[in-house]
């Protein structure tokens, strides 16, 4: 009986040795595997990946890559979308991760600890600054020529939309009752279109229906009014507000133009509002 117990014990130790050996070999192979592709962590970063990278270099996009607010959503068709978790990203073994706001501090720290490069995109404060940011990211992705081509398209779109406003006063308004001042991204786009932004504050601020009705701009610029969910029980549904908007000249700001501070916003405005 004692001999049998010894045999069983040695057999178990042998199996454990085989298992540990297999794990070690697998880990060695995995660690030796070459890094490949770029992973994008959020929708705004997705646009850089989709515009600048060859499809076979995109290892993963965010879950919002095909959202209505994504300008290059059609290019995202057929490409993998991944959740921004450490386990998911590490399994893809990317050579770099692209982000604006996606991924929390723990995720970013975890990726850095594994030697993965983080390419951080900044929010440009105005339209000219988007060009410089596009070229900077293009250089980091080793796709400067593609970035220059995108910049040329942006310049053409800016030239086209700059003739639109004719110095009219414009009030930006969303279904939730918020307006935008001249120092916001929306304000910068409206100024690029040659409108004079009417606002009581420089930045984003709530504008009650009562305050809205007192203002008399030449044009209303509407943002996110095509979003049916956003239109439920909000200030923008007030009957007097809707009546005033209906009687006034309006423009609709396409959501891809205002969702991210980026170079393609001018093109989104040109395409979404007509040439």
Structural summary, described in words:
It contains 11 helices and 10 strands. It has helices spanning 2-32, 43-52, 86-92, 105-113, 127-140, 144-161, 185-192, 209-214, 239-247, 255-259, 265-273, and strands at 38-40, 58-60, 96-99, 117-120, 169-173, 178-179, 196-197, 205-206, 219-223, 249-253. The termini are far apart.
pLDDT averaged over residues: 88
Q: What structural category do the secondary elements indicate?
A: alpha/beta
CATH architecture name of the largest domain: 3-Layer(aba) Sandwich
Number of helices: 11
Helix content bin: 40-55%
Following the backbone from N to C, one meets helices and strands in this order, namely HEHEHEHEHHEEHEEHEHEHH
First-to-last CA distance: 91 Å
Portion in beta strands: 5-15%
Shape: elongated
Count all strands and give the number.
10
**Total domains, how many?**
2
Output the strand order for the largest sheet.
2-1-3-4
CATH-defined topology of the largest domain: Rossmann fold
Major beta-sheet overview? 4 strands, parallel
Radius of gyration: 26 Å
What is the name of the CATH superfamily of the largest domain?
A: Nitrogenase molybdenum iron protein domain
């Amino acid at each position: 009986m004692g001999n049998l117990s010894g045999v069983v014990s040695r057999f178990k130790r042998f199996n454990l040795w085989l298992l540990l050996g297999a794990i070690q070999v697998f880990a060695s192979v995995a660690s030796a595997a070459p890094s490949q592709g770029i992973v994008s962590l959020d929708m705004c970063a997705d646009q850089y990946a989709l515009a600048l990278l060859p499809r076979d270099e995109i290892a993963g996009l965010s879950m919002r890559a095909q959202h209505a607010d994504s300008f290059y959503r059609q290019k995202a068709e057929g490409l993998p979308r991944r959740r921004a978790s450490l386990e998911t990203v590490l399994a893809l073994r990317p050579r770099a991760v692209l982000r604006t706001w996606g991924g929390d501090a723990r995720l970013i720290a975890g990726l850095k600890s594994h030697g993965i490069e983080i390419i951080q995109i900044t929010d440009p404060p105005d339209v000219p600054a988007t060009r410089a940011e596009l070229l900077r990211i293009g250089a980091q992705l080793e796709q400067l020529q593609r970035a220059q081509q995108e910049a040329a398209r942006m310049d053409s779109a800016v030239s086209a939309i700059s003739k639109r406003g004719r110095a009219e006063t414009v009030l930006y308004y969303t279904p939730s009752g918020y307006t935008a001042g001249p120092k916001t991204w929306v304000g910068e786009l409206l100024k690029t279109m040659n409108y004079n932004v009417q606002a009581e504050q420089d930045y984003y601020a709530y504008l009650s229906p009562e305050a809205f009705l007192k203002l008399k701009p030449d044009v209303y610029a509407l943002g996110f009014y095509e979003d049916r969910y956003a239109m439920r029980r909000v200030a923008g549904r007030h009957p007097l507000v809707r009546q005033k908007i209906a009687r006034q000249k309006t423009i609709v700001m396409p959501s891809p133009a205002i969702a991210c501070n980026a170079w393609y916003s001018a093109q989104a405005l040109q395409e979404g509002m007509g040439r």
